[in-house]
Amino acid sequence: MENKIADFAQYLIVEKGLAPGTAKGYQGDVQDLFHYLERKGAAAWNQVDLPLLTGYLHQLRRREISAATLSRKLTALRGFFRYLKRENLIDDDPGLFLDGPRQLSQLPKALTNEEIVRMLDSLTPPKSLVEMRDLAMLELLYACGLRVSELVGLKLRDVDLGLGYLRCIGKGNKERIVPVGQKAVTAVRNYLTAVRPAWVSKPAERTLFISRRGKPLSRQWFWRIMKERARKAGIEKEVSPHTFRHSFATHLLIGGADLRSVQELLGHADVSTTQIYTHLSDQRLKEVYKKNHPRP
C-alpha cells in the first residue's frame, strides 16, 4: 500500500506538474490515512470504503485541525483515490462522496503601506553584505508579489534589470512575466554588484540569491529571516513571505488595479482564487462614489 503513495507523489510531479513540495505535502496527508487504515486492519486500497474514510475524517476533526487544513487533506485524498481508480487499482472511488468543511472566505492578513516601508527602511542603507542581500530579496518579493518558492528559485537569466522585468515559474510549472519596480531594481543591482561576486564559489551556480557559502537558499531559511527582520523593525504582526504577497495584492487593488490584472501578476490560474480580494475593489468603488457623486 505504501508503494502506491510514493507512486502517487511522483505522478503529481511528473504528470500533474505540481511542485515537489506540494506533492510531498499530499503524500504526507495520504500517509496519515494509511497509518489509520493499518490500525483498522485494512490490507489493501481496494478494501477502503466510505465508512472507513468517514471514520478517519471524524478522527481528524477530533484533533481540532483548522478547516483549511482539513480541506487540503481532503483534496489530497480525493486526488489519491482518483489516481488509484485511473490505474485500475480500485473498483470504486470512495473519495467521490467525501464532504469537505465549509470555509469562510476571509481576507489574508496584510501589512499596511507604513509597515512595509518601516521593514524595508530598517535595512536602508544596508550595513553589511547580508543586509544588502536581504533588502534585495524583500524589495523584489514586495515589488512582484512572488511566492517564496518562486523567489528562492530565481536564476540569473530570469531577471532583466534593464527592462525592469523578471520571469518566474509558478504553480503547475506555469511561466509568467512580472514588472519590477525601480526600488527593487536598484536593490537587486546593488546585490549583484557587491554581494554575489564576493560569495559565489562555483561559476556554474546560477541561482540569483545565495548564502555566504555560495549555496542556494531554502524557503524555510527565508521565512526565518523575514520574521527576524520584522521583529527588528518593530512590527508585531505575524510576518511571512506570504504576508508580503497578500500585501502586494491588497495595495494594488486599493490603489485602483483591476482584479484581472492582479490575477495575472499573482499567477493565479483562475480568477476565482483572486476573488478573495473582491471586497477591496468594492470598498474603493464606494470611496470613489462618495467622493465624486453630487448626491452620495
Number of domains: 2
- In quaternary terms, these chains amount to single chain
CATH architecture of the largest domain: Orthogonal Bundle
Tally of individual helices: 13
Biggest sheet: strand arrangement: 1-2-3
Structural class: mainly alpha
Q: Could you name the CATH class of the largest domain? A: Mainly Alpha
Average pLDDT score: 87
Description:
With 296 residues, this protein is mostly helical. The protein folds into 2 domains: 2-97, Tyrosine recombinase, N-terminal domain (DNA polymerase, domain 1); 113-289, hpI Integrase, Chain A, CATH 1.10.443. Helix content is 57%, strand content 4%. It has helices at residues 2-14, 20-40, 50-62, 67-86, 113-121, 129-144, 148-152, 182-199, 219-232, 241-254, 259-266, 271-274, 278-292, and strands at residues 159-160, 165-169, 175-179. It is globular and about 65 Å long. It starts with a helix and ends with a helix. The mean pLDDT is 87.
Short description:
This protein has two domains: 96 residues, Tyrosine recombinase, N-terminal domain (DNA polymerase, domain 1, Orthogonal Bundle), CATH 1.10.150.130; 177 residues, hpI Integrase, Chain A.
Write the layout of secondary structure elements.
Blueprint: H1 2-14, H2 20-40, H3 50-62, H4 67-86, H5 113-121, H6 129-144, H7 148-152, E1 159-160, E2 165-169, E3 175-179, H8 182-199, H9 219-232, H10 241-254, H11 259-266, H12 271-274, H13 278-292
Antiparallel strand pairs: 1-2, 2-3
Helix pairs in contact: 1-2, 2-4, 6-8, 6-10
